[in-house]
Amino acid sequence: MAATAGEGEEVRRLLDGGASPDVPDEDGTTALYQACAAACWGHKGAVIALLDSGADPSRQEDVERSAMTALHWAASNEHLAVVRALLGGGADPGIADSAGRTALHHAAGRGAAAVVRTLLASGADPASPDGQGRRPIDLARQYAGRDIEAEVVARVTEHAPQGAQITVRRERSEGGDVRVVAEVRDHAGNLRSESWLCTGHTEIVRLLETRAGGLSKRRWPSAVGTARQ
Predict the structure, then answer these.
(1) How much is the pTM?
(2) Fold of 148-198
(3) Distance from the Cα of residue 218 to its chain's centroid
């Protein structure tokens, strides 16, 4: 489980010592699972070690359920360096998960403009529909012009326990995007849950319209609250 903990050097040591990236370890964990977990948490060193050992960056995990690849996880969690490493290692940006969504769908919905630009530069299809017929641009339009802080606060408030404290912070991602994070903490200050979105949805819509030669400008419901993108 060194990969999931982000221990890149330990992963490389194990692989150099003869461990196979395709054989389950003592916990029954395969390199595919470890690559997806490492990508999810942004552990670039572990991902690169697995790629260097021959792990397939385009294999899908749990096809019956999520069918996600490591690239899906990295894009969904806005880990730009890992996205670049996976694409450089041959990851296919056109693979769809069980909902029919590509890595570009995930990045567009998150508002991760830097990841979207990187995926497009690697051949991701901006017109690819998901299982409900929605393209990446449609997912970005859901939040374009909206109050992103209000959106993430609403998400965490829905399931926050009574008396919980909700705070919001803004931070710069590795790609330079602004990430808005809402945290829920209990009375003891322990983190219970969080939700986040980047603020690049409007930029992504413009970018995808340009790349697709003017995708249909279908209007989503009008924005609620003050736009802070």
Answers:
(1) 0.83
(2) Complement Module; domain 1 (2.10.70)
(3) 25
